[in-house]
What we know:
Elements: H1 2-5, H2 26-41, E1 45-50, H3 56-67, E2 72-78, H4 84-94, H5 104-120, E3 124-130, H6 137-147, E4 150-151, E5 154-155, E6 157-163, H7 166-171, H8 177-180, E7 183-189, H9 194-207, E8 215-216, H10 218-228, H11 232-249, E9 253-254, H12 256-322
Parallel strand pairs: 1-6, 1-7, 2-3, 3-6, 8-9
Antiparallel strand pairs: 4-5
Helix pairs in contact: 4-5, 4-6, 10-11, 10-12, 11-12
Amino acid sequence: MYETFYQLTDKPFRLSPDFRFFYESQVHKRAMAYLRYGLEQRDGFIVITGGIGTGKTTLVEMLFDLISRENVVAAKVVTTQLEADDLLRMVGASFGLPHDQLTKTALLKNLETFFRNKALRRERVLLVIDEAQNIPPRSLEELRMLSNININGVPVMQTFLLGQDEFLDTLQSPHMEQLRQRIIATYHLQALQPEDVRRYIEHRLGRAGWKGDPSFTGEAYDEIFLQTDGVPRRINTFCDRLLLYGYLEELHEFNRDAVQMVSAELNGEMDRSRTAAMARRGAGGKEQELEGRLAALEERLNEVEDALILERARLRAMYTAKK
Protein backbone atom coordinates (compact mmCIF):
# COMPACT_ATOMS: atom_id res chain seq x y z
CA MET A 1 0.00 0.00 0.00
CA TYR A 2 2.42 2.71 1.16
CA GLU A 3 5.30 1.03 -0.70
CA THR A 4 4.00 2.36 -4.03
CA PHE A 5 3.32 5.83 -2.62
CA TYR A 6 6.91 6.15 -1.35
CA GLN A 7 8.36 4.19 -4.31
CA LEU A 8 9.80 1.46 -2.09
CA THR A 9 10.74 -1.93 -3.50
CA ASP A 10 9.94 -3.90 -0.34
CA LYS A 11 8.21 -3.64 3.02
CA PRO A 12 10.95 -2.19 5.25
CA PHE A 13 9.47 -2.86 8.68
CA ARG A 14 8.01 -6.35 8.48
CA LEU A 15 7.79 -8.09 11.85
CA SER A 16 9.05 -11.51 10.80
CA PRO A 17 12.83 -11.94 11.19
CA ASP A 18 14.66 -11.27 7.92
CA PHE A 19 18.46 -11.33 7.86
CA ARG A 20 18.47 -9.09 4.76
CA PHE A 21 17.45 -6.21 7.02
CA PHE A 22 19.92 -7.06 9.79
CA TYR A 23 21.34 -3.89 11.33
CA GLU A 24 24.77 -4.28 12.88
CA SER A 25 24.54 -2.03 15.92
CA GLN A 26 27.34 -2.16 18.46
CA VAL A 27 25.46 -4.65 20.64
CA HIS A 28 24.49 -6.86 17.71
CA LYS A 29 28.02 -6.73 16.33
CA ARG A 30 29.41 -7.92 19.66
CA ALA A 31 26.77 -10.65 19.92
CA MET A 32 27.69 -11.90 16.45
CA ALA A 33 31.36 -11.90 17.44
CA TYR A 34 30.53 -14.13 20.42
CA LEU A 35 28.66 -16.55 18.16
CA ARG A 36 31.53 -16.70 15.70
CA TYR A 37 33.95 -17.21 18.58
CA GLY A 38 31.84 -20.11 19.81
CA LEU A 39 31.96 -21.76 16.39
CA GLU A 40 35.74 -21.49 16.33
CA GLN A 41 35.98 -23.15 19.75
CA ARG A 42 33.84 -26.10 18.59
CA ASP A 43 32.97 -26.92 22.18
CA GLY A 44 30.66 -25.89 25.01
CA PHE A 45 27.71 -23.54 25.00
CA ILE A 46 27.24 -19.92 23.96
CA VAL A 47 24.36 -18.08 25.67
CA ILE A 48 22.73 -14.99 24.16
CA THR A 49 19.95 -13.34 26.17
CA GLY A 50 17.83 -10.27 25.61
CA GLY A 51 14.37 -8.83 26.10
CA ILE A 52 11.46 -9.50 23.76
CA GLY A 53 12.04 -7.97 20.35
CA THR A 54 15.73 -7.13 20.77
CA GLY A 55 16.75 -9.11 17.67
CA LYS A 56 17.93 -12.52 18.91
CA THR A 57 16.19 -14.49 16.16
CA THR A 58 17.30 -12.13 13.39
CA LEU A 59 20.84 -12.45 14.72
CA VAL A 60 20.69 -16.22 14.30
CA GLU A 61 19.15 -15.94 10.83
CA MET A 62 22.09 -13.73 9.85
CA LEU A 63 24.55 -16.21 11.34
CA PHE A 64 22.97 -19.06 9.38
CA ASP A 65 23.36 -17.07 6.17
CA LEU A 66 27.02 -16.33 6.96
CA ILE A 67 27.89 -19.98 7.63
CA SER A 68 25.84 -21.38 4.74
CA ARG A 69 29.03 -21.41 2.66
CA GLU A 70 31.07 -23.13 5.38
CA ASN A 71 31.30 -26.78 6.44
CA VAL A 72 28.68 -26.33 9.12
CA VAL A 73 25.42 -28.25 9.38
CA ALA A 74 23.13 -25.97 11.39
CA ALA A 75 19.63 -26.44 12.76
CA LYS A 76 17.38 -24.40 15.01
CA VAL A 77 14.82 -25.59 17.54
CA VAL A 78 12.22 -23.18 18.93
CA THR A 79 11.25 -24.70 22.26
CA THR A 80 8.14 -24.77 24.33
CA GLN A 81 7.86 -26.72 27.58
CA LEU A 82 9.50 -29.82 26.09
CA GLU A 83 10.46 -32.65 28.39
CA ALA A 84 13.78 -34.41 27.84
CA ASP A 85 12.66 -37.13 25.40
CA ASP A 86 10.50 -34.72 23.38
CA LEU A 87 13.42 -32.30 23.12
CA LEU A 88 15.60 -35.11 21.75
CA ARG A 89 12.90 -35.81 19.17
CA MET A 90 12.86 -32.13 18.18
CA VAL A 91 16.65 -32.11 17.84
CA GLY A 92 16.53 -35.23 15.70
CA ALA A 93 13.75 -33.80 13.57
CA SER A 94 15.64 -30.54 13.06
CA PHE A 95 18.52 -32.52 11.52
CA GLY A 96 16.14 -34.57 9.38
CA LEU A 97 16.51 -37.79 11.37
CA PRO A 98 13.78 -40.39 12.12
CA HIS A 99 12.15 -39.56 15.44
CA ASP A 100 8.50 -40.59 15.58
CA GLN A 101 7.66 -43.37 18.06
CA LEU A 102 11.34 -44.05 18.81
CA THR A 103 12.71 -44.87 22.24
CA LYS A 104 15.24 -42.58 23.89
CA THR A 105 17.97 -45.14 23.18
CA ALA A 106 17.10 -45.17 19.47
CA LEU A 107 17.00 -41.36 19.34
CA LEU A 108 20.45 -41.09 20.89
CA LYS A 109 21.81 -43.80 18.60
CA ASN A 110 20.52 -41.96 15.52
CA LEU A 111 22.06 -38.69 16.71
CA GLU A 112 25.40 -40.31 17.49
CA THR A 113 25.51 -41.94 14.04
CA PHE A 114 24.64 -38.61 12.45
CA PHE A 115 27.40 -36.83 14.39
CA ARG A 116 29.93 -39.51 13.46
CA ASN A 117 29.09 -39.29 9.75
CA LYS A 118 29.45 -35.49 9.80
CA ALA A 119 32.78 -35.76 11.62
CA LEU A 120 34.10 -38.17 8.98
CA ARG A 121 33.16 -35.59 6.35
CA ARG A 122 34.89 -32.87 8.41
CA GLU A 123 31.61 -31.03 8.87
CA ARG A 124 30.73 -29.26 12.10
CA VAL A 125 27.29 -29.53 13.66
CA LEU A 126 25.58 -26.49 15.19
CA LEU A 127 22.39 -26.63 17.22
CA VAL A 128 20.62 -23.37 18.11
CA ILE A 129 17.92 -23.48 20.78
CA ASP A 130 15.63 -20.44 20.62
CA GLU A 131 13.34 -19.42 23.49
CA ALA A 132 15.61 -21.36 25.86
CA GLN A 133 13.88 -19.84 28.90
CA ASN A 134 11.05 -22.33 28.27
CA ILE A 135 13.22 -25.44 28.64
CA PRO A 136 12.66 -27.44 31.86
CA PRO A 137 15.81 -28.19 33.91
CA ARG A 138 15.76 -31.90 33.01
CA SER A 139 15.75 -31.03 29.31
CA LEU A 140 18.67 -28.65 29.77
CA GLU A 141 20.54 -31.48 31.44
CA GLU A 142 19.76 -33.69 28.43
CA LEU A 143 21.30 -31.07 26.16
CA ARG A 144 24.41 -31.03 28.33
CA MET A 145 24.69 -34.80 28.14
CA LEU A 146 24.23 -34.64 24.37
CA SER A 147 27.11 -32.18 24.12
CA ASN A 148 29.38 -34.76 25.79
CA ILE A 149 29.31 -36.99 22.71
CA ASN A 150 32.70 -36.84 20.97
CA ILE A 151 34.55 -38.61 18.20
CA ASN A 152 38.20 -39.41 18.99
CA GLY A 153 38.13 -36.88 21.80
CA VAL A 154 36.74 -34.10 19.61
CA PRO A 155 33.25 -32.68 20.46
CA VAL A 156 30.83 -33.23 17.61
CA MET A 157 28.20 -30.57 18.31
CA GLN A 158 28.24 -26.89 19.22
CA THR A 159 25.16 -25.51 21.02
CA PHE A 160 23.93 -21.92 21.19
CA LEU A 161 21.18 -21.05 23.67
CA LEU A 162 19.04 -17.97 23.02
CA GLY A 163 16.59 -16.83 25.65
CA GLN A 164 14.86 -13.97 27.36
CA ASP A 165 16.22 -12.31 30.49
CA GLU A 166 14.76 -14.87 32.87
CA PHE A 167 16.93 -17.61 31.33
CA LEU A 168 19.87 -16.13 33.25
CA ASP A 169 17.99 -16.81 36.48
CA THR A 170 17.53 -20.44 35.41
CA LEU A 171 21.24 -20.81 34.76
CA GLN A 172 22.07 -19.42 38.21
CA SER A 173 20.11 -22.11 40.05
CA PRO A 174 22.25 -24.59 42.07
CA HIS A 175 21.41 -27.64 39.96
CA MET A 176 22.70 -25.90 36.80
CA GLU A 177 26.32 -25.94 38.00
CA GLN A 178 27.46 -28.59 35.50
CA LEU A 179 25.88 -26.72 32.60
CA ARG A 180 27.37 -23.41 33.74
CA GLN A 181 30.82 -25.00 33.61
CA ARG A 182 30.26 -25.80 29.93
CA ILE A 183 29.29 -22.21 28.99
CA ILE A 184 32.24 -20.51 27.31
CA ALA A 185 30.62 -17.10 26.69
CA THR A 186 27.47 -15.20 27.57
CA TYR A 187 26.20 -11.97 26.07
CA HIS A 188 23.11 -9.87 26.81
CA LEU A 189 21.45 -7.99 23.95
CA GLN A 190 20.24 -4.53 24.92
CA ALA A 191 17.89 -2.15 23.13
CA LEU A 192 19.23 0.41 20.67
CA GLN A 193 20.59 3.70 21.92
CA PRO A 194 18.99 6.96 20.66
CA GLU A 195 21.77 7.57 18.14
CA ASP A 196 21.26 4.06 16.73
CA VAL A 197 17.52 4.44 16.19
CA ARG A 198 18.00 6.84 13.28
CA ARG A 199 20.62 4.60 11.69
CA TYR A 200 18.40 1.54 12.20
CA ILE A 201 15.37 3.15 10.54
CA GLU A 202 17.36 4.52 7.60
CA HIS A 203 19.18 1.19 7.19
CA ARG A 204 15.92 -0.73 6.85
CA LEU A 205 14.42 1.90 4.55
CA GLY A 206 17.56 1.79 2.43
CA ARG A 207 17.24 -1.98 2.09
CA ALA A 208 13.74 -1.35 0.71
CA GLY A 209 14.88 1.10 -1.96
CA TRP A 210 14.34 4.33 -0.01
CA LYS A 211 15.63 7.47 -1.74
CA GLY A 212 14.82 10.04 0.93
CA ASP A 213 11.03 10.02 0.60
CA PRO A 214 9.65 10.23 3.23
CA SER A 215 12.11 12.28 5.25
CA PHE A 216 12.28 12.41 9.06
CA THR A 217 13.11 15.38 11.23
CA GLY A 218 15.53 14.98 14.12
CA GLU A 219 12.64 15.48 16.55
CA ALA A 220 10.74 12.67 14.83
CA TYR A 221 13.61 10.26 15.46
CA ASP A 222 13.82 11.39 19.09
CA GLU A 223 10.10 10.81 19.53
CA ILE A 224 10.23 7.36 17.94
CA PHE A 225 12.90 6.39 20.44
CA LEU A 226 10.71 7.63 23.31
CA GLN A 227 7.72 5.67 22.00
CA THR A 228 9.62 2.40 21.44
CA ASP A 229 12.43 2.46 24.04
CA GLY A 230 14.80 1.53 21.22
CA VAL A 231 13.48 -2.05 20.96
CA PRO A 232 13.86 -3.11 17.29
CA ARG A 233 10.57 -4.99 17.05
CA ARG A 234 8.68 -2.06 18.56
CA ILE A 235 10.39 0.27 16.11
CA ASN A 236 9.29 -1.98 13.24
CA THR A 237 5.68 -2.01 14.44
CA PHE A 238 5.63 1.74 15.01
CA CYS A 239 7.34 2.74 11.75
CA ASP A 240 5.16 0.44 9.69
CA ARG A 241 2.12 2.22 11.12
CA LEU A 242 3.80 5.61 10.66
CA LEU A 243 4.32 4.97 6.95
CA LEU A 244 0.70 3.90 6.61
CA TYR A 245 -0.37 7.14 8.33
CA GLY A 246 1.89 9.11 5.97
CA TYR A 247 0.34 7.42 2.96
CA LEU A 248 -3.20 8.16 4.14
CA GLU A 249 -2.35 11.80 4.94
CA GLU A 250 -0.10 12.17 1.87
CA LEU A 251 2.91 13.19 3.97
CA HIS A 252 6.44 13.32 2.65
CA GLU A 253 8.04 14.45 5.89
CA PHE A 254 7.50 13.10 9.39
CA ASN A 255 7.90 15.47 12.31
CA ARG A 256 7.25 15.05 16.02
CA ASP A 257 3.54 15.88 15.63
CA ALA A 258 3.06 13.07 13.10
CA VAL A 259 4.86 10.59 15.35
CA GLN A 260 2.77 11.63 18.36
CA MET A 261 -0.42 11.34 16.30
CA VAL A 262 0.42 7.73 15.38
CA SER A 263 1.29 7.01 19.00
CA ALA A 264 -2.08 8.35 20.11
CA GLU A 265 -3.85 6.19 17.53
CA LEU A 266 -2.01 3.04 18.61
CA ASN A 267 -2.62 3.73 22.29
CA GLY A 268 -6.29 4.43 21.57
CA GLU A 269 -6.65 1.14 19.71
CA MET A 270 -5.00 -0.66 22.61
CA ASP A 271 -7.36 0.97 25.08
CA ARG A 272 -10.40 0.08 22.95
CA SER A 273 -9.20 -3.52 22.63
CA ARG A 274 -8.69 -3.73 26.38
CA THR A 275 -12.15 -2.25 27.04
CA ALA A 276 -13.75 -4.66 24.57
CA ALA A 277 -11.97 -7.61 26.18
CA MET A 278 -13.14 -6.53 29.62
CA ALA A 279 -16.66 -6.11 28.28
CA ARG A 280 -16.55 -9.59 26.81
CA ARG A 281 -15.33 -10.99 30.09
CA GLY A 282 -18.05 -9.06 31.90
CA ALA A 283 -20.67 -10.23 29.46
CA GLY A 284 -19.41 -13.76 29.84
CA GLY A 285 -19.79 -13.51 33.61
CA LYS A 286 -23.36 -12.23 33.29
CA GLU A 287 -24.20 -14.98 30.82
CA GLN A 288 -22.89 -17.59 33.22
CA GLU A 289 -24.93 -16.04 36.03
CA LEU A 290 -28.09 -16.04 33.90
CA GLU A 291 -27.47 -19.60 32.77
CA GLY A 292 -27.08 -20.65 36.38
CA ARG A 293 -30.32 -18.93 37.41
CA LEU A 294 -32.14 -20.48 34.44
CA ALA A 295 -30.88 -23.94 35.34
CA ALA A 296 -32.06 -23.45 38.94
CA LEU A 297 -35.51 -22.32 37.75
CA GLU A 298 -35.78 -25.30 35.41
CA GLU A 299 -34.86 -27.63 38.25
CA ARG A 300 -37.48 -26.00 40.48
CA LEU A 301 -40.07 -26.27 37.70
CA ASN A 302 -39.35 -29.97 37.32
CA GLU A 303 -39.84 -30.43 41.08
CA VAL A 304 -43.20 -28.61 40.90
CA GLU A 305 -44.32 -30.73 37.93
CA ASP A 306 -43.39 -33.92 39.81
CA ALA A 307 -45.36 -32.72 42.83
CA LEU A 308 -48.38 -31.95 40.63
CA ILE A 309 -48.25 -35.39 39.08
CA LEU A 310 -48.18 -37.02 42.52
CA GLU A 311 -51.03 -34.81 43.77
CA ARG A 312 -53.13 -35.59 40.68
CA ALA A 313 -52.58 -39.30 41.20
CA ARG A 314 -53.55 -39.01 44.90
CA LEU A 315 -56.79 -37.14 44.09
CA ARG A 316 -57.70 -39.62 41.36
CA ALA A 317 -57.18 -42.47 43.80
CA MET A 318 -59.44 -40.76 46.39
CA TYR A 319 -62.13 -40.13 43.76
CA THR A 320 -62.02 -43.77 42.64
CA ALA A 321 -62.29 -45.03 46.21
CA LYS A 322 -65.45 -42.94 46.89
CA LYS A 323 -67.15 -44.37 43.80
